Amino acid sequence: MRPHYNPAMPTIARLPDLLISQIAAGEVVERPASVLKELLENSLDAGSKVIQVHLEEGGVKLIRITDDGCGIARDELALALTRHATSKIASLDDLERVGTLGFRGEALASVASVARLSITSRERGASHAWKLRGEALAEPEPAALMAGTIVEMRDLYFNTPARRKFLKSESTEFAHCADAVKRLALTRPDVAISLTHNGRNLFQLAPADAPRRIADILGDDFLGAARTIDAGAGPLSISGFAIDPTRATDARDGQYVFVNGRFVRDKIISHALREAYRDVLHGSRQPAVCLFVNIDPALVDVNVHPAKTEVRFRDSRAMHQFVFHALQRTLAAPVQAESTTPLIARSTTSHEYPAAAAHQDNRPNFAYAPPLRHQGTLGVAEPAATAYLAFARAAQDIGQSPAPRSEVAPQFQPAEGNDRDGPPLGYALAQLHGIYILAQNARGLIVIDMNAAHERILYEKLKTAVDNRQIATQSLLIPAVFSADALDIAAVEEHAEALSELGFAIAPLGPNQLGVRAVPALLQSGDPAALAKSLIAELREHGITQLATARRNELLATMACHGAVRARRLLTVPEMNALLRQMEETERAGQCNHGRPTWTELSMDQLDKLFLRGQ
Fold it and tell me: Which of 224, 154, 192 lies closest to 44, judged by CA?
């Protein structure tokens, strides 16, 4: 029920400063992890190289951040606790080119309004440190501190008990705090970070290179199952790691994406990830990534949300295309690139791109190093308008530049190599139960699911042929006849031209019959009637001329599934070797069209362990 309006009350009034800060705190300070994130960002912006985090009761009772940054001058301590006071921006131009993690100047004031806050800091070159308590009218007092800053927050929401009731259990709040520390630690492997909770030291990260820091936080298993990404175009670069599709899991919390060193949850990038992994993931498995996107700050707006976890790109379509194609190239690497080097050292094929700005020269950087406190704009070489055009053009170029894709080759033509170590998948030894091919390479034993592998080969060849409008047709000596209803016949007659472009010749042979007179040459070993039935079902549901790329690819995957060599079919050794060579030349050959692995390798060391050799 609407409250009664009292006309005697003033309609407009200035809110008290404390209430203003508490309103802002409702946006900035969601939970202890929110406070921790803001304080850590301040420490990193201050140029800290060593950061210590101490928590009690999940961060509700205590959050203490100790750093060795540049410190805060005595006369600026009180100002630091006021709203919209910051050293990181000074003009609209700075705001449009934000290069620091923090910039709003609201965090300390918001925290001080809902918790007991104190700051102890010693500016570089100062004779001693000063401490300021967050209480009103407090004056800085001398303190002992070698260098840097200590920010201490106690008793979160002590003065707003209603807000405190919304906090979760201690273990839950601590888990969020630990995640906040880990995310910031991922972006700055050069900074030593330690975390203590209730007096217990949980981890202490020493300065390291980017892969080591990622392994320390996300685990060696992630790094060992990931592929390296390193691409750049114009004012944009992307680096990091993406999970090998065959090693993906159902976990939905494995995506770490950073834009200019800032952890973000961006719908554009998330969609690009899903699209790049679309036909290489099995079932409900999710792509796990740790990606660092560096872009001219003028081309991304970070002033979108108070928590700064959302950004807005000046050209979201160009960003989507760049991320999608960079990932797609990595996932499309042929078997040879996948198996000749350890996963931890993998890298995509290098490409020539236009000269990139600021961070391109040091790729793979895997991090974004902001300037020390406020230093004006970042000094990016290109003006914003020029950088924007280069960004859009480069993103278009990377999409149009074709990734290496194998030529359409005759099926099962033997082609054994003579290189010193042999081909990556080795040479066939035998067939197991008509399902698996056993092969020997320089490292050990290779086991190949021949049906899954052949599916991927056919699928990629069909995509290439359709893209190039070069599908070869194989006429059948005797038409394959099957029963059909009136709607099937109508669909065939309506889409006769489109069917011909896909390599099919299908025509009515009677009121209730259709005949297949020709099929794509790539699928000539499949069942013509089964192929035609699956294709007609797609036609009736979607209409082939209206198929988008994703739906078209699903159709081609279905065709490849029907045309692939079936299980229990006996192959000769030359046929098996020809299949291995085609796998080595085919994109995404590590997974079938449904995301299942097509092959696995058992090294000699693994085999020796199975039989306890040398033990």
Answer: 192
Is 334 in the same domain as 355? yes
Cα separation, 575 vs 437, in Å, equals 11
Using the predicted structure, report yes or no on whether residue 27 has a pLDDT greater than 80. no
- Beta carbons within 10 angstroms of residue 385's beta carbon: 9
pLDDT of residue 346: 35
CATH number reported for the structural domain that contains residue 562 in this entry: 3.30.1370.100
Task: For Cα atoms 275, 279, 280, give the angle at the middle one, nearest 5 degrees.
Answer: 105
Which of the two residues, 295 and 566, has the higher pLDDT score?
A: 295
Give the per-residue SS3 of 465-478. HHHHCCCCEEEEEE
Phi, psi for residue 488 in degrees, rounded to 5: -60, -45
Distances in whole angstroms, Cα of residue 255 to Cα of each of 60, 286, 291, 600: 27, 9, 8, 26
Contacts of 63 (CB under 8 A, 6+ apart): 32, 35, 36, 39, 53, 54, 55, 152, 153, 156, 177
Q: Is 253 exposed, middle or buried (0-12, 13-18, 19+ CB in 10 A)?
A: exposed
Indicate the pTM of the whole model.
0.71
Is-contact 528 480, C-beta < 8 A? yes
**CATH code at position 167:** 3.30.565.10
Identity at 564, one-letter amino acid code: A
Q: State the total domains in the chain.
A: 3
H and E: helices and strands count for the chain: 20, 22
Q: What is the mean pLDDT of residues 189-212?
A: 95
User: In the chain, pLDDT over 90 holds for what percent of residues?
Assistant: 38
Residue 426: Cβ-neighbour burial (10 angstroms; 0-12, 13-18, 19+)? buried
Instruction: Tell whether 193 is covered by a domain.
Output: yes
19 Cβ neighbours under 8 A, 6+ residues apart: none
Please measure the distance between the N-terminal and C-terminal CA atoms of the chain and give it in whole angstroms.
80
User: CA gyration radius for the chain?
Assistant: 30
Of 135, 137, 133, 138, residue with least CA distance to 150: 133
User: What is the residue-averaged pLDDT of the chain?
Assistant: 80
Give the start-end residues of each E strand in 49-144.
50-56, 62-67, 116-122, 129-133, 141-143
Strand partners, 143: 129
**pLDDT for the residue 290:** 95
Q: Which residues pair with 473 in a beta bridge?
A: 520
Residue 348, pLDDT score: 34
Q: How far apart are CA 330 and CA 85, in angstroms?
A: 44
